[in-house]
Amino acid sequence: MTGPEMKAGIPGPGADPGWTFCLDGYDPLLENSVESRFAISNGFLGIRGARATSRGQRWIVPARTYVAGLFDTSGTEHATTGLVPAADWLRFRIMMAGGPLLHHPGDMSSHHMTLDVRQGALFSAGRHFDSPDLGIQVRTLRLASISDRALGLQLIQMEIEQGEVDVAVEASFEGVELGLVIDRLDQDLGTWRTRHSGKRLAMATTSSLQIDGRDLEPAARGPLTWSWNWKTRPGQIATFQRFVAVVRSDAPDLDPGPEARDKLGSARHVGWQDVVAAHKAAWGRRWHNSDVEVDGDAKAQRMLRFALYHLNGAANPADERVSIGARALTGDNYHGHVFWDTEIFLLPFYILTWPEAARTLLMYRFHLLNGARAKAAAMGWRGALYPWESADTGADVTPEQVIGPDHRVIAILCGKLEQHISADVAYAVWQYWQATGDDAFLLEAGAEILLETGRFWASRAQREADGRCHIRGVIGPDEYHEHVDDNAYTNVMARWNIRRALDIAALLREHWPVRWISLARHLGLEDAELAQWLDVAETIAIGRDPETGLFEQFSGYFALEDIDLSHYAGRSVPMDVVLGRERTQASQVVKQSDVVALLGLLPEEFAGAAAETNFRYYEPRCSHGSSLSPAMHGLVAARLGDAEMALRYLRQTAAIDLAETHVAADGGIHIAALGGIWMLAVFGFAGLTLRNDGIAIDPRLPAGWDSMVFRIQWRGRHLKIAIDQANQSVEATLEAGEPMALTVGGDPHPLGRAAMLAVRFRKPGAASC
Ligand code: BGC
User: Fold this and answer.
1) One Pfam family this chain carries (predicted)?
2) pTM over 0.90
């Protein structure tokens, strides 16, 4: 790098508060949740937002780096599977004669961190005056590139304010021997392998330091380590840069080292400025396609941007072998395991704003179909039962026990009983295909998933003496109640799954007969079996009162103790802790949206007043013991026209990761809740629904939201939708793709190519529900 480039310095964060999240000073109690919140990720690498300033021996604390799909098992009898963190590649120290430059707790006020979500980068700035001999201003940048996901970049700029002293700077990796077995450690390359799962990891790296624009030769080098010495003088600018290139290999005999070196070589060749520019341009494209702009409510705007930042950073459309864990790559709660969170709370966002990423996430499930078949078979059923918690092999990795809040060992039954996951995967497959029209995916993967999950339910539901089919002994989304019979969510989703499987069988038979013959042969599917599926779908018990349309959450639920949750408002612990497990199980207290989730996903099952009836019954009984719950309630409230309640739920959801007081984010951000925020805004406030013949919107913006603008993709088309509250109007622009129909407020309108449609969606003064 030359002198003039140095003068410009390293890039800094933007100033627009709509795009930046800042933190001043230091609060040890909030440190872990801040690390989650300020994590940077590109769907392959996830780096927690550890501060550039610590109170300890080092003034750069280790930042945990996670690599998607780098799972290992404990190798014990009850093996647990989890993401193994890679070595921290960001370690950096300034040393003076007396030891490392420390930063004392009382001296933190000058330290600022800024997560710039538009740039997808974490910045920090601070002044270090620990020693009377030396004063330094330090600015840092780190990013995980989304234009080349193998790449991480760290830049540190030190401006000497005072002092002429000898200093040394050391750049190294931390934790190289933790978690993984070292294969080799060279100056510029480390390679490791997992202990039991047969995976390998390579991290190639290079560091350099310039003083006033001139490269300084390292005084010492070691494996993954560099150090430099020089004498400071006021006004001097020292700039440190480090690249890391990370490659995972899933085969024990495939050395990922050469590819990591290649990737590193390309990054070095173009230089950090180009790497930063390409990364920013890639984020620009993601924001163009997915931003939701809200005028009139700056707080809601920030919440949405925070959610969109983590959603866009969580997926990697190039890797079909990984999905998104419950904390994405921002922390190790739930060990990186994948739940229904992905299909129900994340896929909608990807399907409509980033279909390539959605397809990849569904292909992950397709590749693991054999594991799902094995699970169903091991439990005595046919078809595919997806694991409740999934990692990389298709096996169910749900832990069997956990220590409860009262220190008792609690058996976790979800791995065996929480089976709605199979219908949830099928639901996402169907939504993807409906929204994209990606027939190639349907033929290659989607149809097989739908048929095998449909087959599972048709074998799982058993006909009984009352002539109906029942699904006994499950856990629904409300995990407070275990071993329940005929959970409404499970049974209705199962029925829906079987029906879609039958639809697909009929469709393939008619339109792709050759594919149908080969798939039916491969699956051993005969007409008699399809007839049995239909019979199950038509006779399955769903627990709906034909008069009122009210669903009973499961058989016997209405007879349980009815507890008024308003008496427990303001509690700081979950209801099952307040009441104890036994009393909770014997009550109607619901952990999270269950019938309400069904209403969110399949509103057509709730005709007439039934939607209102069910929501008003279950909403007050829900304790929101899961982060997934409030957004789903908000979505349904918005659709029912209760925008005020919906907005409350939006804020409650955002607070899970953003509230200063919250510690629940210690182990990573709640990516499903963040997906729920997007769903609430787009499916709730904009009232977007996907139909066979097009898209419908029926806006219900909350008071104070002057306008809401967002983009979606539908069957190869790119649409921009702008909702104006004051005029009660919608402007829709077809930015790319063929003409289509758009239904606004119930009325269909043709939408021409590159044309803009402007319509009133509700007459001024009309009731809003
Ligand atoms: C919820 C599940 C969820 C899991 C991971 C649990 O507390 O009850 O529905 O899938 O967390 O987010």
Assistant:
1) Glyco_hydro_65N
2) yes
Which amino acid belongs to residue 33? S
Q: Mutation test of ligand 1: which of 332, 334, 341, 593 has the most ligand atoms closer than 8 Å to its C-beta?
A: 341
Backbone angles phi, psi at 239, to 5 degrees: -120, 125
Which residues are annotated binding-site positions for substrate?
340-341, 591-592
CA–CA separation, 531 and 498 (whole Å): 11
Q: Are 590 and 622 in contact (CB under 8 A)?
A: yes
Strand partners, 402: 410
Residue 700 CA to ligand 1 center (angstroms) comes to 29
Q: Which residues pair with 381 in a beta bridge?
A: none
CA neighbours closer than 13 Å in the CB half-sphere of residue 324: 36
Substitution site in 330, 345, 489, 628 for ligand 1 pocket (most atoms within 8 Å of beta carbon) = 628
Nearest CA to ligand 1 atom 8: 626
**C-alpha span between 130 and 127 (Å, rounded):** 9
Which of 35, 479, 552, 619 is the catalytic position?
479
- Tell me if 14 is assigned to some domain: yes
Ranges assigned E (strand) in 439-566? 462-463, 469-470
Count of residues for the chain?
A: 769
For residue 626, give the ligand 1 atom closest to its CA: 7
Determine which residue's CA is closest to atom 7 belonging to ligand 1. Answer: 626
Ligand 1 atom showing the smallest separation from residue 479 Cα: 8
Mean pLDDT of the chain: 93
**Residues contacting residue 557 through CB under 8 Å, at least 6 positions apart:** 481, 484, 588
Residues within a 6 A CB radius of ligand 1: 326, 334, 339-341, 477, 479, 592, 626, 628, 672
Residue 216 near residue 210, CB atoms below 8 Å: yes
Place of tokens 């290079």: 206
Closest-CA residue to 491 (of 594, 586, 609): 594
**Mean pLDDT in residue range 557-584:** 95
List CB contacts of 370: < 8 A, sequence separation 6 or more.
394
Verify whether residue 479 is a known catalytic residue: yes
User: For the segment 3-29, what is each residue's pLDDT rounded down to a tens digit?
Assistant: 333 445 899 999 999 999 999 887 777
Task: Look at residue 103 in the predicted model and tell me its pLDDT.
Answer: 62
pLDDT tens sequence across 468-502: 999 999 999 999 999 999 999 999 999 999 999 99
Q: What percent of the chain has pLDDT over 90?
A: 85
Over the stretch 719-766, which tens digit does the pLDDT of each residue have?
A: 999 999 999 999 999 999 999 999 999 999 999 987 789 999 875 444
**CATH number of the domain enclosing 93:** 2.70.98.40
Domain that holds residue 183: 7-287
Average pLDDT over residues 526-530: 98
Query: 3-state SS of 18-65?
Result: CCEEEEECCCCCCHHHHHHHCCEECCCEEECCCCCCCCCCCCCCCCCE
- The domain tally of the chain equals 1
Helix (H) or strand (E) holding 601: helix 595-601
Q: Are 66 and 46 in contact (CB under 8 A)?
A: yes
Judge whether 79 lies within some domain: yes
Tokens of 693: 């013949």
The answer to whether residue 469 is domain-embedded is: no
Tell me the sheet residues that pair with 63: none
